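Render this sequence as a predicted structure.
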Amino acid sequence: MRVKDAITQFFTVWSMASTSTGLFHGLTTEMNSTELHKVRISFEIRNNSGAAKVQGAVRYKSPTATSWDSATAFGPSATTSEGWSFGTSFADLTTGHGTRKLLGQLGVVVVNDSGTDVEVARVRIQHDHED
């Protein structure tokens, strides 16, 4: 097994005020979906305002589309806990995680875990790709 392209980034992310609607934040540039054959995602939460619940996610679009498909969560369980949540296995994002398109983007989905306020956190992801 060879791992390539481990990348870490920090971003400020936020939730909607609703506890039922997740908000996707793209934390990578769009990439050719063939690069998403086997991906392991981990994320770190810092400065959580309290109820920002985070989970790794992927979304797709075709090159001629003007909007992205809905995001699909994968990786470690959604959490509000600060610190690292490490992915333990590689996911094949070409099957079972939304309709495969030519372009993909990795990021996180953030949900308000309780209450009616917008929640904010700083998040960075690390994504590893397996040949």
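Summary. The mean pLDDT is 85. The first strand starts at residue 3 and ends at 14.
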